[in-house]
Amino acid sequence: MITVTTQAPSSVPSPAETSETEVPAISAPPTDTPEPTVEPTPVSSASGETPDRAGSGDVLFDIYVSAASADLNGDGTPEFITFARGAGSSELTINGVSHTINRPGLAQKFAVTDVDRSDNVLELVFTDKYESGLADTEFRYSYLYWWNGAALKEMGSLMDVKFDGSWRASFNPKKYFKANGEVYCLAHSTELTDVWYMKQLKPDGADRKLKEVLYAAKPVGDPGPLKIKPGKACLLLTHVKSSLFSSSHNSMWDYADWPHSLGRAIDPNADIKIIAQEGETLKIVGVWGQNWLKLQTADNYKGWIRVDDGKVQGYWNVMHYTGEDIFDGIVVAG
Length: 334
Prior knowledge:
- With 334 residues, this protein is mainly β.
- Among the domains are: 52-181, no CATH class; 226-328, no CATH class.
- 4% of the residues lie in helices and 34% in strands.
- It has helices spanning 250-255, 315-319, 323-326; strands at residues 52-53, 61-64, 67-70, 79-84, 90-94, 97-101, 106-113, 123-128, 141-147, 152-159, 183-189, 195-204, 209-213, 216-217, 226-228, 234-237, 272-276, 281-288, 292-296, 302-308, 311-312, 327-328.
- The strands form 5 sheets. Strands 14, 15, 18, 19, 20, 21 and 22 form a 7-stranded antiparallel β-sheet that branches.
- Strand 20 (302-308) and strand 21 (311-312) form a beta hairpin.
- It starts with 51 loop residues before the first strand and ends in a 6-residue tail after the last strand.
């Protein structure tokens, strides 16, 4: 089993993946510093409920049990909100109009947050009920919604973002919400081996569905070593560069398929960072979304591979190699 500790990355540039872009430096976890408390969501005398104001600085995160008053759509008039959980689904009312939340096992608790202070929208967060004794790879979620003035819209799920019961004591919304449109949560890639990382999401499109924005991140926890099998080698790319997997580059991958003598001093401007040899042990030191992995050799050379559904790109195109054909040490716990 994998023990996961969750540390959110600091706010970093969010370039979209391109075929010709070098990945920026891997970000380090943030250091929280005391900041003035954000202006709280107004409390309606009709609700009679004072929120647990978990947020600080620019990050708004007001937690309620059953009722709140907040201007969800920025029209200057607060909406009156009530929430009642159910076993299979729950009911949210906004100004007396009922909306169904089809999520089983929710806590009797919800939050008002502001994903992006530059827009006029406040979001609602619902969270799974507290459970003790979960296994290392069992995670609970929170669920992000917004109201467009008529309909309640689901934005997406956030793994390991939870604030019910005993989880509240360690919950810090600043790890997950940056108030600039960025939202972070734990993610799990099994494209090659078990790798956990904090993924960045942003609202996208008219419905504001959460979409992953690729950035260079450190793995959360230790994914474990990978060892190149006898008779195999592994080309590590200098850049995240998908164009190198086209048929015009097949000869490069064919050349990199067999162990041979190759000096470590590779031209830093070249596409090939290094060709790791049979028997070498590599560790995963970075990710770029679900599919790109940054590997480091024992003598500290680092380069990228891309894996789709276990297929090592480049090698798959030419030799139909999966990760299990090249590496020992692959672990997928599920």
